[in-house]
Amino acid sequence: MMDIKHKLIVIGGSAGSLEVILQILPALNPNLNVPVIIVIHRRNSYKSLLATLLSTKTGLKVKEAEEKENILPGNIYLAPADYHLLIEKNFTFSLDLSEKVNYSRPSIDVTFECAAEAYGSNILCILLSGANSDGVEGLKTVKENGGIAAIQDPATAEVSFMPLQALQHVAIDHIFKVAEIAHFINNF
Question: Which of 3, 37, 54, 181 qualifies as a cystine partner to 10, CB 3.0-4.6 A?
Fold first, then answer.
């Protein structure tokens, strides 16, 4: 039996993914006993209202991840704008200002890769709509570590490039229609 304390779900997306996340969150079980990390490509602004917006859609606690914060079940963490979100082997966050990856900071690849190395086979990573290939290398690392790699069905994506790239380069475990994502997360 897997230790529930050390399971993780990471959702990454870019153009067109916020709409999908706004559909997933209301359908999540408010007693979800797994942490969820969301990495979205977004502009850096002085005061982000994204956490506030997302928290209106779910009974789960939504917050931006903070340096050295413990990753706890039942929380939804957002990668802060303009930082790579790293997951340490002791199940805490680190924020990183190094160079952009795939023209992005936060980079989905960076978070998927370090999360897979910390959580091994106890991870589910889902790549949503987007206009570049960020997330593809990260999903490869997820698979190498025994985790579950999933994508939004490209036919349902506002911008299908990102999930299509993953489908072409990674042995994807699940291809989800938007309505199926929350159900799978609730049963992970």
Answer: 37
CB 92 within 8 A of CB 118: no
- Of 145, 103, 115, 133, the C-alpha closest to 9 is 115
- What is the pLDDT at residue 47? 58
Residue 172 domain boundaries: 8-186
Q: Does 2 map to a domain?
A: no
Question: What's the predicted TM-score (pTM) here?
Answer: 0.95
Q: Which is it for strands 123-127 and 93-96: parallel, antiparallel or unpaired?
A: unpaired
Active site residues: 14, 41, 134
pLDDT tens, 96-108? 999 999 999 999 9
Confidence at residue 49, expressed as pLDDT on a 0 to 100 scale: 85
Q: How far apart, in Å, do the first and last CA atoms of the chain sit?
A: 13
Q: Which residues pair with 36 in a beta bridge?
A: 9, 76
